[in-house]
Design a protein that fits this description.
Radius of gyration: 23 Å
Number of strands: 2
Order of helices and strands: HHEEHH
Strand content: 5-15%
Largest sheet: 2 strands, antiparallel
Strand order of the largest sheet: 1-2
Length: about 100
């Protein structure tokens, strides 16, 4: 089963020149298939079996200046930060993600 099953059925299976500007009128269901395909693109280009990097990166951007930094952390801390990615753009308290890191001296 293809996500673009109906789209592939509609588009002619004949070669066209790169300079042709042929338009095809498609039903609304085809737009839904295209929207689903676009939503799945990040997963299609991701390696879901990849290991979590022990290097954590942080950036801050503003209209006047920006900053970037990185540090090495234990794998469990890196995973916790990765899983908190849905907090993007808002304040994240890292002490709640990994209360034992950094070790208190």
């Amino acid at each position: 089963m293809s996500v673009l099953e109906n789209v592939f059925k509609t588009v002619p299976n004949e070669p066209s020149s790169p300079t042709s500007n042929t338009l095809f009128q498609m039903p609304r269901s085809h737009a839904k298939e295209l929207a689903i395909a676009v939503a799945r693109l990040p997963v299609a280009s991701s390696n879901l079996l990849a290991q979590v990097s022990p290097t954590v990166f942080a950036s801050d951007a503003s209209k006047e200046k920006g900053a970037f930094c990185s540090c090495e952390v234990p794998e469990e801390v890196s995973k916790a930060i990765w899983l908190s990615g849905d907090f993007k753009g808002s304040r994240v308290v890292f002490a709640e993600l990994a209360p034992d890191f950094p070790p208190r001296v």
